[in-house]
Design a protein that fits this description.
four-stranded antiparallel sheet, 154 residues, alpha+beta, two-stranded antiparallel ribbon, 6 strands
Length: 154
């Protein structure tokens, strides 16, 4: 069989399957990539959130005194240790409305987004791929966060 004829037949076969009401095709379309996702009537039923926990607030007074315009800046005023912030797809894009430090959000938002999509945050790096320890980039007063993907059935 020549190449053109093969491509024409293969294309026709694909189109035939695409327009049919094949239950196998429907199952393939609706099944997510995540093998841990539970299915009910061939529709995924998992919703993901991200729990952000403030683990530590560090403050390096010696660096602040030497390098900052305000040498008495102190620790980050936005967060307190033990603070928990839940992020879901509804409030992800509104986190900067005064409720989260812009620099910290810039550092962690890509990982929070991955968690909201049901993805692995740190596969192969942490003990649990749903958990990540990270921090903001403020060198004289960094805040250390624990990010956790929370999976919930809808």
């Amino acid at each position: 069989m020549d190449r053109r004829k093969f491509i024409r037949q293969a294309g026709a076969s694909v189109m035939e399957v695409a327009i049919s009401d094949s239950p196998m095709l429907a199952r393939t379309k609706e099944y997510e990539y995540n093998s841990n996702t539970k299915l009910k009537n061939d529709v995924t039923t998992m919703k993901h959130k991200c729990k952000i926990t403030v683990m530590k607030r560090e403050c390096y007074h010696d660096l602040q005194e030497k390098h900052l315009a305000d040498p008495k800046s102190g620790p980050c005023p936005y967060f307190r240790e033990g603070q928990v912030i839940m992020v879901d797809s509804d409030n992800f894009f509104r986190m900067l409305n005064g409720s989260f430090c812009a620099e910290a959000w810039d550092c962690i938002s890509r990982y929070v987004y991955a968690a909201l999509q049901g993805g692995s945050i740190m596969r192969g790096w942490t003990n649990d791929e749903k958990v990540m320890i990270t921090c903001c980039n403020d060198c004289t007063r960094p805040v250390i966060f624990k990010l956790e993907r929370i999976d919930e059935e809808e």
